[in-house]
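To whoever is on call:

I kicked off a structure prediction for a single chain this morning and the downstream step that reads the tokens threw a length-mismatch warning. I double-checked the sequence; it's 302 residues and nothing unusual in it as far as I can see. Pasting both halves so you can look.
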Amino acid sequence: TVDVTLRDTDEEKASAAFGVLQQRFQSMHRDWHAWEPGHLADINRAFSEGRKIELQDDIAFLIRRSQELERTTGGRFNPAIGGLIALWGFQTSDYPIIGPPPAPAAIRSWLEKRPSSLDIRIEGKQVSSNNPAVQLDFGGIAKGYAVDIARDLLIGMGVKSAIVNAGGDLRAYGGNDQPWKIAISKPGGGIIGGLDVSGDEAVFTSGNSQRFRQDQLERYPHILDPATGWPVSGLSAATVVTDDGTLADAAATAILVAGKEDWPEVASALGLDTVLVIDEQGELFMTEKMRDRLTLNSDTDT
């Protein structure tokens, strides 16, 4: 669900803007979807068959940006793990999933193939991969790029102040006179606190509390560590604030994968200074700049 809030915009301009955004989001959903028929599914099929295929500009951008981010995060962000996500049954919109995890031997078999976005080659308008195990799933970056596109469209149409909110992840701009009030959610429900956005910023959270696989013994979050093939542990949520939605989305995922010990290193490598993480016991850790900006609820422990 995408919510768009505009300020100081007349009805005619707002109606036109909503119409443009609705059409654009529908096309993005169709073309970037990892498991429904569309352009990305066609690309993944070509990779598995060792073929080249024509490439749309949006997906070319996502691949190139993903390659940069995979390098910078030491592989913690890797959108080529669609095969692993499918193995776990997480390429679905129906949660929770009931049942045991994949067999360890199947996970080991996937790990041996070492799929990476760095295995992808873009030549002109065509794309290919030298690794047939590469299966792209942009679940960790697509919303960020989508809200960036929406922001650019709105500015191009003369909208001076807006929030584009894609399922709780958002980009807000134009709050100089009246800052946008952004709430930060608590894993499992409730609000940790809030912060003001007065310029042009994205606020993205990656968490493992809502999407998971459950069997009789254990709960398995949907965010997977590409290095181990298993769900992340240590942190339950990460929130990133920066002026680039694409970066904020991917960074929140990479920081969650990095875990309790290594998240500051990943944040620093990505040039981020406004980050909050929450561990599995509910304790908060944050950068100095986030501490300066975040107003905590009175019942929130730090």
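Update from on-call: the warning came from a stale cache, not from the record. Cleared it. Sanity check on the structure: The helical segments are 11-32, 39-49, 57-72, 82-87, 104-113, 142-156, 245-269, 288-293.
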